[in-house]
Amino acid sequence: MAASRLPEADLEGIEGVRMTWNNWPRTKVEASKCVIPIAASIQPIRPHVDLQVLPYPPLRCKTCSAVLSPFCRVDFTALVWMCPFCYQRNHFPQHYSSISQTNLPAELYPNFPSIEYTIPNYPQNPQNFNPSTTVCPIYLFVFDTCLLEEELDFAKSALKRAIGMLPDNAMVGFVSYGTQVQVHELGFSEMSKVYVFRGSKELSKDQVLEQLGLGAAGRRAGPGIQKGGDGLNPLGGAPNSGINRFLLPASECEYTLNSLLDELGTDQWPVAPGNRALRCTGVALSIAAGLLGASTVGTGARIIAFVGGPCTEGPGSIVSKDLSDPVRSHKDLDKDAAPFFKKAVHFYEELGKQLVSQGHVLDVFASALDQVGIAEMKVAIERTGGLAVLAESFGHSVFKESFKRIFEDGEQSLGLSFNGTLEINCSKDIKIQGIIGPCTSLEKKGPAVANTVIGQGNTTAWKMCGLDRNTCMTIFFDISSNEKSDPSGTNPQLYIQFITSYQTPDGQTRLRATTVTRRWVDSAVGTEDLVNGFDQEAAAVVIARFASYKMEMEEGFDTTRWLDRNLIRLCSKFGDYRKDDPSSFTLNPCFSLFPQFMFNLRRSQFVQVFNNSPDETAYFRILLNREIISNAAVMIQPSLISYSFNSLPAPALLDVSSIGADRILLLDSYFSVVIFHGMTIAQWRNMGYQNQPEHQAFAHLLQAPHDDAELIIRDRFPVPRLVVCDQHGSQARFLLAKLNPSATYSNAHEMAAGSDVIFTDDVSLQVFIDHLQRLAVQAS
Amino acid sequence: MASPGGPRPGNLPPSFIPNSLANNMQNLQINQPNQPQSNNPTGGVSRPPNTTPFGQQPPPFAGSRPGPPPHSAFARGPVPPSPSGPPQTTLSPNVAPVRPAGPPPGSQPPTPFVSRPLPPGSLPSSMGGATVSLASGSSPQLGPGPHHGPFVSSPPMSGPAAPPPVRTSGPLSNGPPGITPAQFQAGPRFPPVMGSTPRPPPIAAPQPATMLSSGSSSQRPQLRPNFGGPPASASLATTHPGPSSAPPQNMLPPPAPSPFSAPIQSVPRPSGSPYGMQTWMSQQQQVAPPPPVSGLQPPRMFGMPRTLPNQSLAPTSPALFHTGAAGTAQSKVDPSHIPRPIPSSVVILHETRQGNQANPPPPATSDYIVKDTGNCSPRFMRCTINQIPCTVDLLSTSAMQLALLVQPLALPHPSEEPIQVVDFGESGPVRCSRCKGYINPFMKFIDQGRSFICNLCGFTDETPRDYHCNLGPDGRRRDADERPELCRGTVEFVASKEYMVRDPMPAVYFFLIDVSTNAIQTGATAAACSAINQVIADLPEGPRTAVGIATFDSNIHFYNLKRALQQPLMLIVPDIQDVYTPLESDVIVQLSECRQHLELLLESIPTMFQNNRIGDSAFGAAIKAAYLAMKSTGGKLLVFQSVLPSIGIGSLSAREAEGRSNISAGEKEANKLLQPADKTLKTMAIEFAEYQVCVDLFITTQTYVDIASISVIPRTTGGRVYYYYPFTALSDPAKLYNDLRWNVTRPQGFEAVMRVRCSQGIQVQDYSGNFCKRIPTDVDLPAIDCDKTIMVTLKHDDKLQDGSECAFQCALLYTTVYGQRRIRVSTLSLPCTTMLSNLFRSADLDTQFACILKQVTGEVPSTPLPQVAEQAKNLCINILHSYRKFCATATASGQLILPEALKLLPLYTLALLKSCGLRGDGRIDDRSSWINYVSHLSTPLAIPLVYPRMIAIHNLDEKELDSSLIPETVPLSSEHITDEGIYLLENGEDCLICVGNSVNPDILHQLFGISSVEEISSQFVLQQYDNPLSKKLNGIINEIRRQRCSYLRLKLCRKGDPSGTTFLSYMVEDKTPSGLSYVEFLIHIHQHIQRKMP
């Protein structure tokens, strides 16, 4: 399994870029005929063994500020390089004087399309260069106390463990909330001290700062008095005044926090019978954001929120406190019967904007059996590049393990980085429509901005307050339609440069420049080049993202129909067939998997939202949009591996027919990993054969899927739910829901013994393909 | 603080006969025509008394001092003001120097009488021992002797013996200021003495008169002028007769105590008397008393006889009194013989009813023990007039107020019987079904007890079946004496369910402490914390007591004191525009559960905030937040505030500064700075009251805090303002602690509602005090304590029947600190009268003045000051005028005639005009604080507030304090202050100790541990050193504290310092740039009255 994934990883290579089309049609018309939008999925800070980190700042083009790349034409004698984007000629600075054909700086090596620079310090705060304050990231925990005792204990212990794992210099803050918000002043040694805010009132950032005593310095203290105070207490004044009252290095406040957590009880405000607890998640988050607003500009910070239930108090409420009102469902949203929804979304939008402007991240760890409002919070999470984890309980491994992963060090570290910005330079005729993914448009206009907008658009630069190794974004391109433009004709290559600057978890500022080139093709001549350049996996994921995006943005959007139509058009265009003869239909191998992806996408949680709550849908989409292509593909079309005595573990068809009594199946649907024991296997296991030395092979067989599952789980964030089940067991539904229903009750009699049937009216893949072929060959 | 208990009988020297003075009426005769003349002389005279005498006298005094002391020494064993040794000698020297004419004695006598021309009357008056003489003298050709005899004798008071010295003292003292104190005291104590001296035995009664007469004789300087200008402008005369009747009543009741006192008194007196005699002799020189005296006495005679009857309230004819006065037309006013309060130290035993008649109560300021025999104790409720006018016309003719001062939880005297608690079970107390009046001794049972007639509304109710009881032959229920509600004026009923809206609230105390920079740096925070910490131990025990604590600067810091926590948790409420409570529970915790946390917290607060640099104070927000935390239960919110609320809800501006620049407008319009800045706090306060939250403010400040605005909160919620300005960490913490301790330990109740019901014909017009009124008939009191007094003004809505009784019933429904719901019902039934003279005779000076004080003070914030002063003066003038016009018609027009009962009204009115609240020159906050203090002030404290008690303490060890701890008082006139003296002055709140510039360093060392006057700083802490003088001083101060239920704010003053100026500002009898001297004021009043006379 692991082995099988390696080649996929290579697809991204050092660039970390995958495109739906690797050869680009020359014109807008051609592009639209391609059906699948031209899009690139980029993993901005993808780690790679070959990645070079240069200890100096990059050279940038003086007009378009593109970074020097291997694709620049360099005149070594004149010490001039020409920018491939704007054709500007730039002189090399003095310290490049020694370069020559044989003495190239790393950024000019053609096999380093991606290269990283270390930037001494962030230019925004040159005046007080103090690595210890500017550099350490801030972790502000926002902690729900409207929990059951047991849940609270789980959450507390998770938090304690996390704090223990934080680097010593990481700054930590703590906010707890229930009916009210309590901002804990960790730097107060005398006793535990908290600022209490009412949950029902929205406060602006300024108000929060003012009330926390972090407003414009000394605004509240009389001038004379302050002078006196300073005189008396030159040292003591500082810790008492600034944000360091609330944010302390982990090493200093660990004890305080631990004892604070020991005493922290569940929320004391009474809950009337038949009501939900009053929980002011919205205000808590907005106050946390306000608090962080006092931190130095450019400091990376994340708000890590524990949410144990729906917000019912104050702005951001998603449901009334009356338990007889259920939390909104997709149906309610469709019928506009969710009175809180729009207001809450608007609130979180504003919160997101504030966080983005501060460069801070919102992470949400939601653990509840009911919804907590991820659907509303999604906008803030996604815009800031935050993480979201949805679990049933703080005691559940999905939460516990995921949460731990954030703070883990080393190889498995998520590499959580801060304050990223992404700039894109591209060749003439290429326009950028926007990005779907965890980022925010910086509204930086330029010639490369397209007229139409998808996702975060209208810009050539984006803010990524939080990003990590796996963060991935989808950029939608458009081709400017000028067919006659000759200059482009002269150069068959197109160039796109992604410049990502960010702060690493340890506080370094980095800039990564990734320059890619692709070929223009004249599709009017033939589709072969196009076809060969098609990345069906990437395309499937892009379509899935695009569809999700449209579902959110367009009211009454009929996703299934839209997908079907696109698929049919695609097949019509790129399939080989005789008109009106379905049986003659064949697809190039480059496209062959695509219909199946679409089939699974149609059945997936992304399209069939009604099987899920709005929260779950939002959660799935957040991950769909930020995961790398291969992971996203798994979300759409899970992978299935079969284990049996007779063969090595092998991928199996995602089909009900893969179920066998003597097999173990391992399903990876990204959000859950299912180990499914065939009936016979289960019986053997129940009889304990695996414990008998003579049946060691059986023990190995039993163990193998667990080991593989472990591998999957280990490097995935959020940690998937592991389901171990037996055939015909109730948990088996996690597997069955994902399988192609080739065998249903309607044709059960045809099935072989030991296999299974799925009780559904859904069409099977075969039927779907049949229809597709029929429709694709129809004259349109 | 001393134990709250009332003065113990034992302590008080029996020697004082408290009421005697008050009883007599005084006439001050002033001849206008003469005045001018007199004035000329007076130039020396009237004013001189202040200036000249002062300046000049001192030298003579050096010699003369001795003079006064003797008197005092004689008169009172205990407190001779000036140290002078030999009385007589001293006197004579005094006399000699002062009055050039050694012989003056002869001349003097006349002077006092002023009315030399007027032969007998005037003379006698003066003679009479001054006081008596005037009044009685005039009319009374009557044989004084006999009267006196009876008088004296009748009141068991050892009249005869004691009197002589006193009187003597009086006259003697007159001359030298130092002496005056003696006179006063003497007057009161030995009123009889007065009489005795001249005519030892009889005079006892005359005391009142003495006052007047003494005046004439006393001031030598004046005398001279007087003499010089025979036409002396005014003569003062007191008429005993009318008033005397009233006084006698007072006097009589005392009999019980007096017996005790009498012997004691008698003892000293005898000895005194001889001396007295001598002194007299000396005096006589001055006054030539004897002959005139006789003349004077006659009037007293009249008084005397009446006195006896007085008890039964027999009306006395005012005419008698006047007679005396009439004679003396031209005599000058002698400052030392004009009426002055004479504190009595005799414990009076007062039965509220005798012979089925209401017994007029002793003065509120006196020491008395009440036996509730049907009417409630005067401590709980007293009326401005002890007989109720039958018609409005009669009342308005008298120009007096009809009002009740109600102090429903007043502190009883320790020797009084506790109030009986009556439990009617589920059905609750028996009440009239129409007016809802509570059963009381005046409900009349008829028809074999089957029904009863309500004494309030007249309705006939059916007796509840299980309450039925047959009537005895006397028409009373047979069980009347066994049932407290049928024989006691005050009872407490256990409230049944129907009196509860909810379960009785727990005793919740919430402390709110200012920790802004200022508070921290001045030590106010530390003081507050330490006070609270000590007081916690005094809070009521038990599960019903809960406490909470919060601090504030520009934020509000609550503390979670829950036991489970390792340490208190500070919860900050930063939104001071829109506050809230940070926890639903745990902010207020049962005391038993959080004692340790609380102590720990209180210890650490001052250090925790020691570097606090926040100067702002979110006072309004803080109390609002605290209120929200207490809202579910209600309770007491005790706030310690140090700076102007500058931020958050209800923040205020430092408008004092604006006010200063704007001062010119001050004369014409009301001072806006005395009014609340806006309505925010008022609105809040009403809300607090609704949820039974009572706020007390402890203001420990160095600056302006706009008390006018913030005091609205305590005033509306039944709390009060304690004002410590300027706060000093040295001496104020002790007071703060004691104030706080008294605040939480004194008898008090929560969530109270009070209503006063009156008999038909009278109804309540308005209530005033510290409370919240939502409906016109009731007063809502989130908390009520023993110190809070509510003034209830009354009005007629019908005629009353002559000879009937009019009843007032005050019902207070409240919750005790132990969570019982009780109804305290006090009933007072007073006779109705159609006689104006009865009204004057039964007027209750202390109560009347308290009413005037409260009313006038209430006007101050909304009315221009001159107008207020005018109003105050007119209240006084109108009453005197009415008396003059209708009750003293027989007198010559040139006389100022004062009704005996109200003879001190002019003095108090003058004092009021010069009080902090009515002076325009004080700090705004001082004035506001004063105004606030008055609003809830109890009757016994009303007079000391404007007319403080002053005693000399430099010579304590020279005097044998008799059983009384407090030496005799010195009049509030700078004439009576010597440079060698140390004087203690107290008004119930503050205590100033003024040290003269040439005080014997020895004494300084003994008292204060310093060796020279220069070392005096106004901040000091009284310490007890191991010497008798210091011990005595401590003893005195402790006694005063006990009496006032207040730990006085002690301040050392020194002449020449600003502190000395403060001290001098209390010398209300002095002439000041903006105010008249006492004598001038009397003349002034007299002129007004004359102008009004047709």
UniProtKB/TrEMBL annotation, chain A:
Residues 647-735 form the Gelsolin-like domain. Residues 58-96 form the Zinc finger Sec23/Sec24-type domain. InterPro entries: ADF-H/Gelsolin-like_dom_sf, Beta-sandwich_Sec23_24, Gelsolin-like_dom, Gelsolin-like_dom_sf, Sec23, Sec23/24_helical_dom, Sec23/24_helical_dom_sf, Sec23/24_trunk_dom. It is found in: Cytoplasmic vesicle, COPII-coated vesicle membrane; Endoplasmic reticulum membrane. SUPFAM superfamilies: beta-sandwich domain of Sec23/24, C-terminal, gelsolin-like domain of Sec23/24, Helical domain of Sec23/24, vWA-like, Zn-finger domain of Sec23/24. GO terms for biological process: protein transport; vesicle-mediated transport. It is a peripheral membrane protein. It holds the Pfam family Sec23_trunk. Keywords: Cytoplasm, Cytoplasmic vesicle, Endoplasmic reticulum, ER-Golgi transport, Membrane, Metal-binding, Protein transport, Transport, Zinc. Residues 137-407 form the Sec23/Sec24 trunk domain. Residues 418-521 form the Sec23/Sec24 beta-sandwich domain. Its main location: membrane. Belongs to the SEC23/SEC24 family. SEC23 subfamily. This is Protein transport protein SEC23.
TrEMBL record, chain B:
Residues 504-744 form the Sec23/Sec24 trunk domain. Residues 23-41 have a biased composition (Low complexity). Keywords: Protein transport, Transport. Residues 429-467 form the Zinc finger Sec23/Sec24-type domain. InterPro entries: ADF-H/Gelsolin-like_dom_sf (IPR029006), Beta-sandwich_Sec23_24 (IPR012990), Gelsolin-like_dom (IPR007123), Gelsolin-like_dom_sf (IPR036180), Sec23/24_helical_dom (IPR006900), Sec23/24_helical_dom_sf (IPR036175), Sec23/24_trunk_dom (IPR006896), SEC23_SEC24_subfamily (IPR050550). The keyword Transport applies. Residues 749-833 form the Sec23/Sec24 beta-sandwich domain. Residues 844-942 form the Sec23/Sec24 helical domain. Transmembrane segments: none annotated. Residues 1-293 are annotated as: Disordered. GO terms for biological process: protein transport. Residues 210-221 have a biased composition (Polar residues). Residues 967-1036 form the Gelsolin-like domain. Gene3D superfamilies: beta-sandwich domain of Sec23/24, Sec23/Sec24 helical domain, Severin, von Willebrand factor, type A domain, Zn-finger domain of Sec23/24. Residues 1-16, 56-71, 100-122, 157-166, 244-260 have a biased composition (Pro residues). Belongs to the SEC23/SEC24 family. SEC24 subfamily. This is Protein transport protein Sec24-like. It comes from Forsythia ovata.
